Every structure is written in structure tokens, then in C-alpha cells.
Amino acid sequence: MVPHIHTSDGVSLVLNGRPFNVSSHDKNFEEVIEALESHEDAAFFENLLTRTQRQLETTLSLTHDMSYSGGVILYRGEVLANFAADRLVGRLEAGREAHPLICFLEKLQKNPSKRVVDRLYEFLEKGSIPLTGDGDFLAYKAVGADFKDIQLSKQEIVEGLGKTTENTEIYQEIKEAFLSLRCASSKRYS
């Protein structure tokens, strides 16, 4: 029997003199509980609990040009160091669904603006703008029948660009993002 303590938050085990903690939210939690009830040996638990780590240490091909290796995202062999890449690493390491973010990040690399590449996903996340399964994002703007902003009724809205009058930094970033990603997508606005 493997020495362990089971609490409402999870399970703590001692395997070959090394402590392991498994949160009740961990994807392996139910399997650990079943193995404890079945009186599996320490080797079984060590294999189970290090399996995910071994998978993450190997290179994982995400797309033809993008891979995950050693805790970083590589695009055509170069390390991606931006907000979206950090979020993708987090999702991969947590074993969560990552396909929409992978597709988005690959499309984003085609954008010529480093500022957009570095900051667009952060903008989308803060605005709770969802990604579709193929990595596009959905954004809406309320306009009247005359295609003018319904709140100000004077600013013309150009499809896919948002507000086009003020040229502050944030509006410029949004405009660049839509223009660049619009060029990378044939029919949908990414």
C-alpha cells in the first residue's frame, strides 16, 4: 500500500521517498483514487504521475510550422515569446483544449506588425472576444441602418475596421490588427 493522505483538496502520496500532490482538479485525480482503492504499487503511481511530464518534455508538433518543446512554443524553429504563446503553453501543460489558440497563433505570425503579434491576443482576452475553432475571432459593432455608430451617429464604420476617426494608439493597434489579419483570411475576419 502506498502511504497517502486524502483530503477534500486532493491526495498527497509518498513514492520511493518523494512526495507527490494530486489536486482534486487534476485530470489524473480519479485514476489516482481508483488506483489507491485497488492497492496499486508505487511503480504504478510514479508512472501515472510522471506520464504527463514525460509527454511535455518531448517535442509536440502542433502544426506544420509550430511545435511545443521544453515549455516553449517554436514557430519555424524560433521561440515565440508573447502573451498568446504563454497562454498556449499554459493550456498545453494543463492538458486543456488548445486547438483554436494554436490556429490563431499560427495566423497571427503572418502579421507584419510585431506590436500586433505581441498584443492582439491580450486585447482579445481582456475584451472577452471568443476564438472560433479555426482560430478566427468574433467581434461585433452596433451600427444603425446607415452603417454609422449607433451611439455617436456620426462616425462611419468600415466593415472589419471598427471606429475609424481617432488615431490613438489603441485604435491604431486595432485597425492594424484587423487589416493585417483580414488580409490573411479569405472570407472571415480573423
Explained architecture:
This protein is an alpha+beta fold. The protein folds into two domains: 4-56, no CATH class; 97-184, no CATH class. It has six helices and nine strands, in the order E-E-E-H-H-E-E-E-E-H-H-H-E-E-H. It has helices at 29-37, 42-57, 83-94, 99-108, 114-126, 169-184, and strands at residues 4-7, 10-15, 18-23, 60-61, 66-69, 72-75, 78-80, 157-158, 162-163. It has a four-stranded antiparallel β-sheet. The longest helix is centred in the first third of the chain and has 16 residues, at 42-57. It is elongated and about 75 Å long. The model is unreliable at 161-167 and 182-190 (pLDDT under 50).
Write the layout of secondary structure elements.
Elements lengths: L3 E4 L2 E6 L2 E6 L5 H9 L4 H16 L2 E2 L4 E4 L2 E4 L2 E3 L2 H12 L4 H10 L5 H13 L30 E2 L3 E2 L5 H16 L6
Antiparallel strand pairs: 1-2, 2-3, 4-5, 5-6, 6-7, 8-9
Helix pairs in contact: 5-6
Name its key features.
190 residues; alpha+beta; 2 domains; 4-stranded antiparallel beta sheet; 3-stranded antiparallel beta sheet; 6 helices; 40% helix; elongated
